[in-house]
Design a protein that fits this description.
Layout lengths: L6 H13 L2 E6 L6 H8 L5 E4 L8 H11 L4 E3 L13 E7 L5 H17 L3 E9 L7 H5 L10 H13 L4 E5 L10 H11 L2 E5 L5 H10 L3 E4 L1 H5 L4 H17 L2
Parallel strand pairs: 1-2, 1-8, 2-3, 3-4, 4-5, 5-6, 6-7, 7-8
Helix pairs in contact: 1-10, 2-3, 6-7, 8-10
The protein binds geranylgeranyl diphosphate (GRG), SN-glycerol-1-phosphate and magnesium ion.
Geranylgeranyl diphosphate (GRG) binds next to strand 4, helix 4 and helix 5.
EC number: 2.5.1.41
Main location: cytoplasm
Family: Belongs to the GGGP/HepGP synthase family. Group II subfamily.
Length: about 250
């Protein structure tokens, strides 16, 4: 059996290979100045994620608006089965593996599967892991998580290895949108070392030097959301830090 990797994922893999890391920017479909943010982000992000954890309205409209502004791939980041739009390119086909409710671990993605097929969206298989302090954020509340502690990097790493054994090619270490602090470097490095799959890190990253150290620790992708809602211009300095760290990481390989 041959497993086909889609266009968007292939492109992300090429960028990771050539530049050491990708920069993903998260846009909330409910954001009012979505066009202004997309306009700024289009020259720096490698792809745009679209999603929100508390209900989704105007998703199709939001995706169409972004599409008018840029040709960058749009990857849906669904907070539930209603987070799907046929106007996007791909979807993080995600299981919240450390939820205490099987709905978030397997039922929601299963209920979305046929829609994904019908909409011709490229599914990118991903373990979504909510790490301390995610419990204090919207995703922790909605996703009913068993929060993974930061002082035990092995637990997160073990989930990443499990994700790999399940055939997932990506794991998202999520501290929660707007988190007071991001996932620590030890958790990132051990997760990467043990699993070897692509590691996405997001939640609470607001400074270029922090993004820089997360990439050096082993992150293949960095996500920022809130920061750009507050200051879309910050995208440039984040981009530079991520790509600088990516280059250094490739050199030290
Ligand atoms: C694959 C399909 C169809 C569904 C998967 C559904 C799953 C597993 C969802 C996991 C639980 C969840 C609520 C995820 C939300 C992820 C997300 C879109 C976060 C975006 O951040 P917000 O939490 O909206 O941030 P703000 O609070 O800053 O708006
Ligand atoms: O909004 P921030 O804190 O950048 O978090 C982004 C992302 O990890 C949320 O899913
Ligand atoms: Mg939101």
């Amino acid at each position: 059996m041959e497993i086909k990797i889609g266009k968007v994922e292939k492109r992300l893999n090429e960028i990771i290979e050539e530049e050491g890391a990708v920069y993903l920017t998260l846009l909330d479909p409910e954001e009012e100045n979505i066009e202004e943010i997309a306009e700024k982000v289009k020259d720096y992000a490698d792809a745009i994620m679209v999603g929100g954890s508390i209900g989704v309205v105007n998703l199709d409209e939001a995706v169409k608006q972004i599409k008018k502004i840029t040709k960058l791939p749009i990857i849906l980041f669904p907070g539930n089965v209603d987070g799907l739009s046929k106007y996007a390119d791909a979807v993080f086909y995600m299981s919240l593996m450390n939820s205490s409710n099987t709905y978030w671990a397997i039922t929601a993605p299963t209920l979305g599967a046929i829609t994904i097929l019908k909409y011709n969206l490229e599914p990118i298989p991903m373990a979504y892991l909510c790490i301390e302090p995610a419990k204090k954020t919207a995703v922790g509340y909605v996703g009913e998580i068993r929060e993974i502690p930061q002082n035990k990097p092995k637990i997160a790493a073990m989930y990443c290895l499990s994700a790999k054994f399940f055939g997932m090619r990506w794991a998202y270490l999520e501290a929660g949108s707007g988190a007071p602090y991001p996932v620590n470097n030890e958790t990132i490095s051990l997760s990467k070392k043990l699993s070897g799959i692509n590691i996405i890190v997001g939640g609470g990253i607001r400074k270029p030097e922090i993004a820089y150290e997360k990439v050096l620790a082993g992150a293949d992708a960095i996500v920022t959301g809130n920061l750009l809602e507050e200051n879309p211009n910050a995208v440039e300095m984040m981009y530079e830090a991520i790509k600088k760290a990516g280059k250094e990481k490739l050199k030290n390989r």
